């Protein structure tokens, strides 16, 4: 038993006999239906105490130690064989507001006194946790979560057939805090949309009768939790005979129960420990006096209203107070005359009397001099999230400027603090919290805030004190985050080093090494601690400066990272923010700077902030279906929100929801959903261009300068949301870059990615994960225009992602590196990096990442099988081709009907790669396989390529359509069908002309003297034109060679020189040779326009070399003559080629435009804030 203090909880429950009997009955009555015991009442009436008493009577060690063992007549331990009970579940723990974490709590054997096991669930849960901890894509995580939930219910039902289960849920009103009320009221969401939240999930499971043979004890404040409790009653009614409601509405103590309280408190002090006898004697003397003075008992009951928590606090004033407040010195009759009530209603006079008493209570508890107890209680009342003993030690004993990173704990001091904590744990106002933290009863925070804030001088002093404390606790959390991230980084580096890439013919066997159970548990614990530290860091930053940190830190933390979106995590950050924003007690000690615009509207800054939080919620809801790959749903919801925003009647609300910043935030993700779905990508890009143009305009003016006068919108320099604006601009540029790349306009993609980096660089602290995403995407765009610097940029992104420690983004960077190496014709390197990407993707069970990795593996295998290097391998080209086929068929399945089937652009890419595989396989097979085999491969190639061309045409993606047509031409050429190859090339030329007309650019090299501008013309046109003319040249060479051999065979008897002359004088043969010279002149010119020194140029030269070495001296002279003529007539020497060694171009590609003075001003304008 713990030492006693004046305000200790009584060891025996006061009153509540009827309530406990109803709970007992809910546990022992026959039947296997669910019983929901709803314990409702205002704050401070002892709802938590009832749950603790239930657990104590059942023998739960924590509460038996706190209150002592139950009395014989209250002993319920005989139920152990027929009842399994869970530990207390407290919804002040924000993590439990997400379905997955709540299920994890219920499915943890350590949560149950009887140690019941959920074996199947634990296996599925571990897989789910591994995916979330390592950053798997949301679509894959959601599937894993569903499988884990199904396993949980399967295990739960098995356990429930053997015994009744009891689950105590506390502070349930917290579940009623719904951030999406604005959307729900306008019927933009339905309850099923909220099923990822514990509130809605619990409602649906109860309505569906899932909690069979279970007693749920649900305690909460009825008024604050009205929405939740109303929904709960409806769910119970819907369940019918499967569920029973057992209502318990707590009332304040009666006068008799107040007397019982004093008697039981006196009894507790009668058995005080020997070293507390002196305190016990004084305390009992006061209590005995109270027990003999019915008038004073009645007086205290009047003032407290029979509220247990107030009763405890007021008693403490009577026992330990330095002076009695005037109201407590009155007789009951005098008090009745003053407060004008008998306690049946709260009058202003009664509230004033309470304030006078509670001021002394607050002084006694939290301003009690320099004692360690007072210091600890002072920290607790200022930190509603609770603190650990280590945080207390740092908050109490570190110097003001001491950084947590340099802090060294004192073990002896920790022991002293721990002893003091043990002493105060049994105080009626003290509560244990999740994670070994200690806090106070919720009502105490409200009382303290009301009393302190009533006096402006005291309030200002408290503001400063809280700021200092929050700075210490935020610094502590920040240090924990860095320490845990460093450890995660070490884990990831170690895990990556153990990947062993298999040989090409067995490349799919490449795997991440499986961790031992101990290693997995260590990583899972680290992820749990890191999440808690991040939530805590956000909490204290918001308390320090909610205006700036909501618009800065919170917005960055919930900023969308496509590579590692984690919906439960996002939801928890949002819930933490929402709770702080609606903490009335905390906001009394936050000094918000009122902006002139808000004052003119008659609004407080709190109202402005809360509306901004509502608008953030709307954005989060557009993002959710987008990340679930429900692109049409995301687009429709965004459109519906816009429609409702335009219908708002209140002018201030209308202006806010339709402000450029708010509209753009929603529009940014609406358009990204359109891009991913392939729906009118050009329109989406145009919309994003308009959005970013308006956002940039806002970023370049201060808060006093009108930017859009017609909307009454000024600039943002000097506004707390300025950083949020910069972040949104950066995000929009990223989406724009992705949109342009999807259209094949890689130069515009590069320009937008670089612009995004410029804006991200102006935000402090920088967002490493987002910077890595931009650099990763930038590198992919760079290689598409032949920039070899793409390797360095991608490796930089990979290093950043390894530093962050999220496995899935690392897989994406490895895969992008594979794509780059493939484009640079380095298949060995491509195979290594993309195989590593696949190993990680499989490890975290992410289908989309696996599909992308398989595409690069397939391409690398194809190039290895086709190239000369394959001759050096033990595996035959045929074996490598077979492995490539297996790889690419898997990739195609993923994007056709698998987890990433909504990404039609990726499906086109899969079809293109499969078609290219069969194309090269045809070239290999014609000389080594039967016609039946190579013709089947030829048909397969055309099937996939034609499908790709058709789908690309539907989506208006000419760069992919042209790619498919050119590959189809090469396929027919390898099959010996030159006329069909030329027919496909003709279609390609028509498409090129169509693109030229649409974009008003010139791509083709002609004899007119007008030269293509390589910087303004889409690079893919030059790349494909080079391939097309290469093929034209090969066809011409082949016809020349074939017919020349036939001609010389006719004149085999003539001397060699005469045979050569006959070939020279044959007009048809010379036409073929001329055509070859012209085609290669153009092919190489286009290759240089694409990128001087590119792999396309090397490929064209390789093919040309293969033919030229077969020419005799006369033919070589003719070819040289023709080539020179065509080079002059096409004026190749005057083509405007890009200078890849130009420093300015390098800077613009990799870092953005800092030559623009306005851009520089914008980047540094934050310094003026």
Write structural notes for this entry.
It contains 50 helices and ten strands. The radius of gyration is 37 Å and the shape is elongated. Helix content is 66%, strand content 4%. A hairpin with a 4-residue loop joins strand 9 and strand 10 (713-714). The chain is mainly alpha-helical. The strands form three sheets. Strands 1, 2, 3, 4, 5 and 6 form a six-stranded parallel sheet that branches. A two-stranded antiparallel ribbon has the order 7-8. It has a two-stranded antiparallel sheet with strand order 9-10. The protein has five domains: 18-98 and 108-114 and 163-249, 3-Layer(aba) Sandwich (Rossmann fold), CATH 3.40.50; 115-160; 255-479, no CATH class; 531-585 and 598-806, Serine Threonine Protein Phosphatase 5, Tetratricopeptide repeat (Alpha Horseshoe); 1014-1138. The chain starts with 16 loop residues before the first helix and ends in a 5-residue tail after the last helix. Helix 5 (119-133) packs antiparallel against helix 6 (138-160), helix 24 packs antiparallel against helix 27 (605-627) and helix 46 packs across helix 48.
Kindly report how far apart the N and C termini lie. Answer: 56 Å
The level-1 CATH class of the largest domain: Mainly Alpha
State which percent range the strand residues make up. under 5%
Structural Rg: 37 Å
Number of strands: 10
Question: What would CATH call the architecture of the largest domain?
Answer: Alpha Horseshoe
Helical run tally: 50
The computed structural class is mainly alpha
Number of domains: 5
Tertiary shape: elongated
Described by strand count, sense and barrel closure, the largest sheet is: 6 strands, parallel
Q: Portion of residues in helices? A: 55-70%
